[in-house]
């Protein structure tokens, strides 16, 4: 059997398949998730059931979202697991997770995610954050470091700001490549995300926060005076009490929120179309 076959399934690279196979590691991950009966548990990418099975043992039932039709088929016909599963054979990036949530039962989402789609998937899941109790994900270690990073360090960026604005980010444990078959080339880590019940300093528009982060970190070695030129002038930065000589990684999340709110209130002028002139707002 070739090295990327596990339990008779040939791992598919395009689906980011790296299967967990070490019982001790699997049980510490399940301990971290702490699934309980009657919870609204959802696993993304159950694969061959490494996490699914011990979660069923503790919680009874769960929903799973699996894109690979061969794996979905296996689960559907699995003698022990199938009766406990609601299987959605669909791309998690397109799945409407709100469909599964109720007011009494917020979602508890978890998964050993395909690393090639982890960032867009997390942004997709964050759009349902009001219906989510918590999320536990296995990610590339660097991605967890970026999510959890604070200002003044290299890992701090758009992912840190967008995630921490919406959730508490708790790195739980690191896992080496040998825990998977086939072994990935990178180290992995489990992160717990708990959406904030209430956001103390809310931004007027989440897209504006994303825009200021993209603008700033697109050129992370430039001073913000330079990178924000088209959105906010140096004088305006000073009037907002933000030092224009700083670099993007030196600004706190609250400062990014302030800049985002500024561009909501003072939208940058778009280049004028050739003939028709619109009356300038300001
Ligand atoms: N949970 C298993 C498998 C992890 S591998 C384990 O830990 O062993 C990643 C899993 O995500 C695979 O089952 C893969 O088929 C699935 N997957 C990949 N892309 C997906 C997507 N877009 N939506 C849902 N599942 C996906």
Automatic annotation (TrEMBL):
Instruction: Give one Pfam family.
Output: RrnaAD
Can you name a GO cellular component term? cytosol
Which reaction does this chain catalyze? Answer: adenosine(1518)/adenosine(1519) in 16S rRNA + 4 S-adenosyl-L-methionine = N(6)-dimethyladenosine(1518)/N(6)-dimethyladenosine(1519) in 16S rRNA + 4 S-adenosyl-L-homocysteine + 4 H(+)
- The organism encoding this protein is Litorilituus lipolyticus
Which family does this protein fall into? Belongs to the class I-like SAM-binding methyltransferase superfamily. rRNA adenine N(6)-methyltransferase family. RsmA subfamily.
Q: Does the keyword Methyltransferase apply?
A: yes
Q: Which gene encodes it?
A: rsmA
**Keywords, in A-Z order:** Cytoplasm, Methyltransferase, RNA-binding, rRNA processing, S-adenosyl-L-methionine, Transferase
Specify whether 4Fe-4S is a keyword of the entry: no
Any GO MF annotation of the entry: RNA binding
| Coiled coil stretches, renumbered | none
- Output this protein's name: Ribosomal RNA small subunit methyltransferase A
**Which residues bind S-adenosyl-L-methionine per the record?**
18, 20, 45, 66, 91, 112
* Alphabetized SMART domains for the sequence: rADc
Instruction: Give start and end of each Ribosomal RNA adenine methylase transferase N-terminal domain.
Output: 25-197
């Amino acid at each position: 059997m070739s090295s990327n076959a596990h339990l008779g399934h040939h791992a598919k690279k395009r689906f980011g398949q790296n299967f967990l196979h070490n019982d001790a590691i699997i049980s510490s991950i399940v301990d971290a998730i702490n699934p309980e009966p009657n919870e609204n548990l959802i696993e993304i990418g159950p694969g061959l059931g490494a996490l699914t099975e011990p979660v069923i043992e503790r919680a009874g039932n769960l929903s799973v979202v699996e894109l690979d039709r061969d794996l979905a088929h296996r689960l559907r016909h699995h003698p022990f697991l199938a009766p406990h599963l609601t299987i959605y054979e669909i791309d998690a990036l397109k799945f409407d997770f709100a469909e599964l949530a109720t007011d009494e039962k917020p979602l508890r989402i978890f998964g050993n995610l395909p690393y090639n789609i982890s960032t867009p998937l997390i942004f997709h899941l964050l759009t349902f954050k009001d219906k989510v109790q918590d999320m536990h994900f296995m990610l590339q270690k660097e991605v967890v470091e970026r999510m959890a990073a604070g200002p003044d360090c290299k890992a701090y960026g758009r992912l840190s700001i967008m995630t921490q604005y919406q959730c508490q980010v708790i790195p739980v444990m690191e896992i080496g490549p040998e825990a998977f078959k086939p072994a990935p080339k990178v180290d992995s880590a489990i992160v717990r995300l708990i959406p904030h019940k209430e956001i103390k300093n809310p931004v007027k528009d989440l897209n504006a926060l994303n825009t200021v982060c993209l603008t700033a970190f697109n050129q992370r070695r430039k001073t913000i005076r330079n990178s924000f030129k088209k959105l906010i002038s140096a004088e305006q930065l000073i009037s907002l009490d933000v030092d224009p000589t700083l670099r993007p990684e030196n600004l706190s999340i609250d400062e990014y929120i302030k800049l985002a709110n500024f561009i909501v209130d003072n939208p940058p002028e778009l280049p004028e179309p050739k003939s028709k002139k619109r009356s300038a707002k300001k």
